[in-house]
Structure formats: structure tokens, C-alpha cells
Amino acid sequence: MLKFEPFYQEYERTLDAFSLAFSTIYFEQMTIAPKKGIPYSNEMLSRLSKQAFIIENDPETIKKIKEYAKTLPEGSLEKKEVDYRLEALAQSENIPSDVYANYVKVKADSELAWHEAKEADNYEHFKPHLQAIMKETLHLLEYDPKFNGNNAYDVLLDRYEKGMTQEKYDAFFNNVKEKLVPLIHEIQNKPQINDDLLHETYAVDRQEKFMNVICDFMKVDFGKVYLSTTEHPFTDFFSSNDARITTHYYPDQFLSAILSTVHEYGHALYGLQMDPAFEGTMLTQAVGSAAHESQSRFLENHVGRSHAFWQANYNQLVNLFPEFKDVSVDELVNMINKTECALIRTEADELTYPLHIMVRYEIEKEIAKGNVDYDKLPELWADKYEEYLGVRPTNYKEGVLQDMHWSTGYLGYFPTYALGSAYAAQLYATMEKQFDVKEALLTNHFEKITNWLKDNVHHYAASKSMAEIVEEVSGEPFNPDYYTDYLIKKYKKLYNLD
């Protein structure tokens, strides 16, 4: 059990109470709150955020925390936790409270505008809000001691995954591009897999019934997990016993809600399986985004797209969807893993997915430099998609409005999806060596997977970085070749290229 001085423990509990309030407001806004009431709640959220900000960044309290940090033993979890806190405070302690409150209001209004704009396929409605939130996001960097006037994107990348820079991501993506793009082009010239059955119209209530089957199979504890629906699926954490996830059902995209829910459950499981002693501390809050995405992508891709996963659930699938009765498990799994150069990131297959991330990464670098003309952003987006994937959106919903991230100021988050996928590949390769994953799935022992993740990854939370965890678990430093080699092997077999 972590032991802190009473003043510090009270400080953290107070901030945790504010965090719980913010999460509650946000989740309700995204799920059940009447849309016409959101502008008022955004105003109240801004006021509440200002009060929390003042408490968090009180100069006397920060001074006391800095002195307290000097008394903690090097290498102790308490020292690591307080150091994380001081790193976070360094980003915010110089920001005037009014500036921060304005940022929160701009962000909340921007996200609401994005929802409205996407529904109406109206980029012009969102454009001024996008400009405003990007301006405020970059403006806040001026108060960060790591910012030197020319390294905005590096500072942002480091916030989402500590130690990452443009130089490191450039090397990572160049490796991905060099190894995967030729394979993508080769597959495009081969006979394509017919997945029309996945795009027939299936009523949402039928999809919901099958979702219950999948959740039961994954042994989701609905005493700790709540599942709802939103335009863009996400996960939020309220405590070590409370995770909220959302999904989105499309009548003509049978696979979408299933894989998005498996993905979000990967996030939820990570939070629920962290060491309970870390609850309410920076050891849960400071987990890197790539670390989190490694766990969501782990479940979505290595488990949720696997043959054993669908073989185990095939009979119940056919019971609820007789349309699949003439399709074998092999054929179904081929459909699920089909690769196609398409427009939507969240629906992308594993092989083309990193190219979707590269499009966003390259645009973000220009946004951070202040080089983007927002009037021409949809065209820039379309040009990048045509360059990397050979497709071009004909509307904004399938183009620049498809993701919510920029509406919330999440500049620098997108690359963590690809890095997380690479972490996941190395972890999964290690897990396969330690027990028969296929057998666990076929015999309804999903808990073997979740227990392995808890023991080897989840319970550490931020007490270790994901790079450290990967090296300890696999016995070698992080190696992105696990990721590219896994994809090459999988898709060469799928398309008979060996």
C-alpha cells in the first residue's frame, strides 16, 4: 500500500473528486444528456475546471510537494508517483486560471460542434471551432518549460507517450512504410475476398443480442463495466471498479460494433486490472497512450480477429444470424481479416491501418508548425488519402470529420495507435509461447488471457513504462519488427502469397 503524507493524500483525493465529476459530466454529455442542454453544462464545466485548476496549481502547495519529493527514497513507488505529479504540474503551474478555463470551454464547444458537423456533413460549421481549439492547445504550450518555440509537436508527442519525438516516430513509420506498402500493392493485384455478407443490413437489436454473447464470452463483469452508444466509441475510467465504454452500431457494418467494443474493453480491462493500491494516484493517470492502445489493439486484433475467437462463437452467431449458416468459419475469418484500401480509420483492417495513422501524423506535424490553411484542410486530407491509400473521400464525414480527436485538442495522440499496435504484437508473440491461446479460446477460458495480461502488464500501471514491460516480458527490447513481421506473415498466408 502506498503511504503519503496526509497533506498530499488529501490533495490527491480532492483532485480525484473533481476528476470524477468531470468524467461523469462528459460521459452523460456523450450518451444521455439532452443536446440542447450541453452549452449550459459546458459553461458550468468551465467554471468547475477553473476551481480545480486553482487548487491543483496553488503555488504554496506545489512548493510543499517539491520539498516533500526530496524526502522520498529514490526508487520507491511513492517517489515515482510524486515525480509524475511534478512533471504534470510543470506543464500547468504557469498557466493563468482564466486562460485554462477558457481552454476548457473552447474544447467543450469544439467537441459539440464536431458532433453537429459530422451529423450534418458540414465542415464549415466545425472549422472555426477546430481553429480555436488548435490555437488554444498550442497557446498552452507557451507555459510549458519543455517548449522552446520550435518543438511544439515534440512536446505534445512526449505528453501522450513519454520519450517519443518526431525523430523516433519518423523512423518507426518509415520502417512500417518500407515493409508494408509493397505488400499492400501486391495484394491489390490479387483476387479479392468477398465480404458482402458483412455489409448486408442487420437490425441493431439483433446486433445487440450478439454483442451480449461476445461480452459473455470475454467474461465482462457488468458490475464494473457499463456499455452505452455514442457517435465515436470511447472509454472512460471512474475508479478501479468502474469503467464506462461506448460503441456504435451500423446496420450495414456488422463487424464495426463488435470490434470497437472488443477494442474499448481492452482499454477498460487495463484500468480495472491495475494494482488497486494505485487508485486515485498518478500511477494510474500517467499511463502512456501507446501503452493503453497496445491493450485495446491487443484484444481487437490478436484476439478479436483470430480464428479461434470466431470458431468459439460461430454457433451462436448462426443462431442469431442464419444468414451466415452457409459460410464456414474459415470463410468468415477471411472476410473479417480482408484488407482493403478504404476511407475510415476505425473500420480499417490491420494491414492498412498504420497508413491511416500516417496521414494524420503528417497533417498534425504541419498543424503544430502553424502551416495548415483550415479552408483547405479537407483537400489536404483527401490528397494524403489518395497518396497513401489510393482513395479519395467524396464527403466530409468520410474525410476530415471522421475522428473526434482534434475537436478535443488531442494533437499528438494518433501516432500512439500505431506504436501501441507494435507493442501489442511483441506482447502477443510472448504470450503464445507461454500457453496455448487458441485452446483457451476454444474451451471458453478467456480468463487465461485476461489473467496473463493482469500479471504481466496491467497491474504495473505507470510504475513501469510499456517499453520496460515489453522488455521484461519478452526478454528483449521493444522491436517493431514483431509488428511488421506479424502482418506480413498473416496477410501473405491469407492471400496465398507464400
In short:
Helix content is 62%, strand content 3%. With 498 residues, the chain is mostly helical.
CATH class of the largest domain: Mainly Alpha
How many helices?
Answer: 21
Q: Could you list the spans in which at least 5 consecutive residues all have pLDDT below 50?
A: none
Q: What is the helix content?
A: 55-70%
Distance between the termini: 53 Å
* Overall CATH architecture of the largest domain: Orthogonal Bundle
Order of helices and strands: HHHHHHHHHEEEHHHHHHHHHHHH
Largest sheet: 3 strands, mixed
Strand content: under 5%
Number of strands: 3
**Do you know the CATH topology of the largest domain?**
Neurolysin, domain 3
How many structural units, i.e. domains?
2
Mind explaining what this structure looks like?
- By secondary structure, the chain is mainly alpha-helical.
- The chain has two domains: 6-143; 166-494, Orthogonal Bundle (Neurolysin, domain 3).
- 62% of the residues lie in helices and 3% in strands.
- The chain has 21 helices and three strands.
- The protein has helices spanning 6-31, 38-56, 59-71, 77-92, 97-120, 123-140, 152-160, 166-188, 204-217, 254-272, 282-285, 289-303, 307-320, 329-336, 353-369, 377-389, 415-434, 437-442, 447-456, 466-474, 481-494; strands at residues 225-229, 235-239, 242-247.
- The chain has a three-stranded mixed beta sheet, sandwiched between helices.
- Helix 17 runs parallel beside helix 20.
- The model has no long low-confidence stretch (mean pLDDT 96).
